[in-house]
Prior knowledge:
Layout: H1 2-31, H2 41-65, H3 69-98, H4 110-130
Helix pairs in contact: 1-2, 3-4
Amino acid sequence: MRTVQTAHIVYLVKVVVGLLSVTSVCAVALALPGLDFSGGLKETLIILCALFFFGLFPFIYKIYRRMDELQKRLHEHASVFAMTFFVSSLGIVGVLQANQMLPLFNQFITLPIAIAVWGAALSVVDRFYKTPGTQNE
């Protein structure tokens, strides 16, 4: 029982650290246009922010490959739901913005929404697998 609690705490710490990292880089990227740096520091920070997001893919893929089969299945189901929801929502937003019915907004706004939708989908899928009698056998 103690090992399970420790595993949950370690998982939550990883999630919180990941969210704080992404949030920090987004905050830096959003603050950069208003800051006045000399000597190319601003351009260096912009490149570092871009490289951070580019580097997320191999890092997340490495984590995914180390998961067991049930965890992979949970994340696959959550990703399918989140991707379907998110693509449909972005299509609606794009149509409304193209017709000037919705103002343009920074794309960093879509990042936390995508993370929240994926997280909610993951919790729903997790509950599905933990509720007796709901698995496809």
